[in-house]
């Protein structure tokens, strides 16, 4: 199933996308919960509850689709340098504060986070804060959504904790990422986490074997399979949950393939007027203009 969060006549809602992709069946849940998109439903499913009652369908064309988890409860977990070719391009860019000589490819996962408030909807503008930084880059990524939480989750059990998947664009200020060494600020500027359009359940999509692509103004920049991840999804869940309890609705962005703007010489940063589109097979297409 595909969850879609939306606004309809200014009111938040969340529902199931029909198989033909043309309609939404809204869930009958309180308005306070609807503001969090699919979060309360993932939480109640993790408690063993059934899906909420469905209301009369709406046409998808009548609503404005938002991020499926527009207000994550806490930071989005992210993984740095998790595709071999990207690790090499980033280490060679001169902007990599984590690079050690002779070690382009990490031997343990590099985990950082983005603050929840930087999440934006499909179609919403990525804003370049020109007075702060103009070295703004895209990163197409598959995001894992946790269903059942837990601590000390082992690799062999990890996929049972995955509710499903969505797309994120891990937008980054490269000069802030480099200068401040810790990545949180350069990854968390306002508008720097486009997310969506749908949240697809794990029974409909094998996130361990799907294709991630990114286009800037229609030009393909990134194209890789998640089978090329250095640290696969079970390893990421085992690593994160070793010391940190994971909760339903937690988001793990799994890393970006080769082809980011910093990998070009000279770098090809995003410019006002650009349009960035991220596509993942089985989920759909996340497109955002740049302002
Ligand atoms: Mg990233």
Provide a descriptive summary of the structure in words.
By secondary structure, the chain is α+β, with helices and mostly antiparallel strands. It folds into two domains: 2-65; 76-289, Fumarylacetoacetate hydrolase, domain 2 (Alpha-Beta Complex). The chain is 15% helix and 31% strand. It has seven helices and 18 strands. The strands form three sheets. Strands 1, 2, 3, 4, 5, 6, 7, 8, 10, 11, 13 and 16 form a twelve-stranded mixed sheet that branches. A four-stranded antiparallel sheet has the order 15-14-17-18, with no helix packed on it. It starts with a strand and ends with a strand. The chain binds magnesium ion.
List keywords for this structure.
alpha+beta; binds magnesium ion; 2 domains; 291 residues; 15% helix; 4-stranded antiparallel sheet; single chain; Fumarylacetoacetate hydrolase, domain 2; 12-stranded mixed sheet
Secondary-structure blueprint:
Elements: E1 2-8, E2 11-17, E3 23-26, H1 31-34, H2 39-46, E4 58-59, E5 64-65, E6 76-80, H3 84-91, E7 110-114, E8 119-120, E9 136-137, E10 140-146, H4 155-158, E11 162-169, E12 172-173, H5 174-179, H6 184-187, E13 193-201, E14 211-216, E15 219-225, H7 233-241, E16 251-253, E17 275-280, E18 284-289
Parallel strand pairs: 6-16, 8-13
Antiparallel strand pairs: 1-2, 1-5, 1-13, 2-3, 3-4, 6-7, 9-12, 10-11, 10-16, 11-13, 14-15, 14-17, 17-18
Magnesium ion (MG) is lined by residues 78, 139, 141, 170, 253, 255-256.
């Amino acid at each position: 199933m595909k969850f879609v969060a939306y606004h309809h006549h200014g009111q938040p809602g969340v529902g199931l996308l029909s198989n033909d992709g043309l309609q939404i069946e809204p869930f009958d849940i309180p308005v306070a919960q609807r503001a969090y998109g699919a979060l309360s439903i993932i939480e109640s499913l993790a408690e063993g509850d059934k899906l909420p009652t469905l209301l009369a369908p709406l046409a998808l064309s009548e609503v404005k689709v938002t991020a499926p988890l527009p207000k994550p409860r806490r930071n989005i977990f992210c993984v740095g340098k998790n595709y071999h070719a990207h690790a090499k391009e980033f280490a060679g860019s001169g902007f990599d504060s984590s690079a050690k000589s002779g070690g382009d490819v990490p031997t343990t996962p590099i985990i950082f986070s983005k603050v929840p408030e930087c999440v934006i909807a499909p179609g919403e503008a990525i804003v370049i804060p020109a007075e702060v930084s103009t070295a703004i880059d895209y990163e197409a990524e598959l995001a894992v959504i946790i269903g059942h939480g837990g601590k000390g989750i082992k690799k062999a059990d990890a996929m049972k904790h995955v509710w499903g998947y969505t797309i994120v664009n891990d937008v980054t200020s490269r000069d802030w990422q480099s200068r401040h060494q810790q990545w949180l600020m350069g990854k968390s500027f306002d508008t720097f986490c486009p997310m969506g359009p749908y949240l697809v359940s794990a029974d409909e999509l094998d996130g361990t074997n799907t294709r991630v692509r990114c286009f800037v103004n229609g030009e393909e920049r990134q194209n890789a399979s998640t089978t090329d991840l250095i640290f696969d999804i079970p390893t990421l869940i085992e690593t994160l949950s070793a010391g940190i309890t994971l909760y339903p609705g937690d988001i793990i962005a799994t890393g970006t393939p080769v082809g980011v703007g910093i990998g070009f010489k000279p770098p090809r940063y995003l410019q006002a007027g650009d349009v960035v589109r991220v596509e993942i097979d089985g989920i759909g297409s996340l497109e955002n203009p740049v302002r």
